[in-house]
Design goal:
binds adenosine-5'-triphosphate; 32% helix; globular; nine-stranded mixed β-sheet; binds magnesium ion
């Protein structure tokens, strides 16, 4: 892609209503634009990152054996009445009527739809275990949308649902998903932590959250300095009712190993053992040896759009974003510094651009007639990990300059050597 053909909507001013770094940088780098409170347009650079995140998630879901489906965003009220959640879910559920006065909601999650699908289309217990997933838009009428796409009303989620014949097998499906989640967050290069999120029993493993560690995170996490014990601090405070978060700083860990430490996190994933809640309320049954059984379910969410912001919270400096390789919109940017419009230099840019593209690299070519200062600050702001500078001086020596985002050092190379660097 040439920047002259790209909607490169960078801006220098920091938006006054953006409190977090990721929100500021997503606006300044031209990744998103607000349409209404908690509702956003994604611009071309933003969509590129979103697709990278989606593709990593899709790759690992497929590898785990889950099958991709696509369920509707608009969901009939009847199904929610069957599960009992029409009344329970609260004001985050956006409800409306169609022209026939039938009640619908915009899907904040899809347990009802998937349970309905399975009770119609799974005919034999031999079809279990099975896990389905989708990558789709969700709507939750959040009371306080904030921090850009970190807490929006409309957002993209990967949600998966597993169905098993026994609790033991459900545990297996759950662990399979847990491993897939680890591979997902590892390959995105994120610093994350898995914490217990079960309100029932501390030490139980019914629900776990994946948190990207960040000071701006809304959740407080408590973890032992000597073991794997880690929990959403809210739950610990609930269980130890006389405590507040202050008093947790240094307390002995509930597992008896080491002392508790606190940190902040952004919840990017949540895995949950649902058990028979939906199969029983919605009467999803299967026959096994003349016995009627209700399958054991699990559900597993990942905030695709939230990950984009969470990754920026962890990867930026005062010049802008520094994308981890796996989710960067482009691998490398060629910055052409050619104020006199030198034809030979232009043709070198064009050759390098085409040869890298032919070899399958994702290349951005900043071919705009802008000052070097503007080009460098734009490219640093949008965070492409590698920059090749093609300017008159080095060109005279048949060389180009190479710089890694976030590092000061500039090295000189022959244009043919760039491919090796990528
Ligand atoms: P939170 O505690 O942040 O409100 P949640 O527990 O309600 O999230 P889940 O129902 O577990 O969220 O949804 C699965 C994933 O979807 C979350 O882990 C998160 O990454 C993402 N997510 C949930 N709500 C939002 C939102 N309002 N904006 C962006 N992403 C969200
Ligand atoms: Mg959650």
């Amino acid at each position: 892609m040439k920047t002259s053909n790209l909607l490169l909507a960078t801006q220098r001013e920091t938006p006054s209503d953006a409190e977090t770094k990721s929100h500021q940088l997503m606006i300044k780098a031209g990744l998103i634009r607000q349409v209404a409170s908690g509702i956003y347009n994604w611009l071309p650079l933003g969509v590129k990152v979103l697709r990278k995140v989606e593709n990593i998630v899709r790759r690992e879901m497929d590898k785990s054996g889950a099958q991709e489906i696509l369920m509707p965003m608009v969901q009939p009220g009847e199904l929610w009445k069957e599960s009992g959640r029409w009344q329970q879910y609260g004001k985050e559920l956006l409800i409306f009527k169609d022209r026939h006065k039938r009640e619908f909601c915009l899907g904040p999650t899809h347990e009802e739809i998937i349970t309905n699908l399975c009770r119609n289309d799974i005919r034999s217990h031999k079809q279990l275990p099975v896990t389905f997933y989708q990558i789709q838009t969700k709507f939750r009428d959040e009371i306080r949308p904030r921090f850009g796409v970190l807490r929006s009303r409309e957002f993209i989620m990967k949600d998966a649902y597993s169905f098993d014949l026994s609790e033991e097998e459900m545990n297996h499906s759950y662990n399979n998903m847990r491993e897939a989640y680890k591979r997902i967050f590892d390959s995105m290069g994120l610093d994350y932590r898995i914490v217990k999120a079960d309100s029932g029993a501390i030490g139980g493993s019914d629900s776990e959250e994946f948190h990207v560690l960040s000071d701006t995170g809304e959740d407080l996490l408590a973890f032992s300095d000597k073991s794997d014990y880690a929990i959403n601090a809210d739950l610990l405070i609930e269980a130890l009712s006389d405590q507040d978060s202050e008093s947790l700083e240094g307390q002995p860990s509930p597992d008896g190993k080491g002392n508790l430490k606190l940190t902040r996190g952004i919840e990017v994933g949540h895995i949950f053992k649902l058990g028979r809640k939906y199969s029983e309320s919605m009467k999803l049954t299967l026959q096994v040896d003349k016995r009627t059984i209700f399958p054991e379910m699990g559900c597993y969410g990942i905030g695709i759009s939230r990950i984009v912001a969470a990754a920026i919270e962890q990867n930026h400096d005062d010049k802008g974003i520094i994308w981890p390789d796996a989710i960067s919109p482009y691998e490398v940017v060629l910055v052409e510094i050619n104020p006199k419009g030198d034809k030979a230099l232009k043709s070198l840019c064009s050759q390098l651009y085409n040869s890298l593209k032919d070899k399958g690299h994702e290349v951005l070519w900043d071919d705009r007639e802008q000052s070097p200062g503007v080009k460098f600050s734009d490219m640093e702001l949008i965070g492409i990990p590698r920059m090749v500078i093609l300017g008159e001086k080095s060109f005279k020596d048949n060389q180009v300059e190479f710089k890694i985002r976030g590092e000061e050092k500039i090295s000189r190379l022959a244009p043919e050597e760039i491919e090796d660097k990528l």
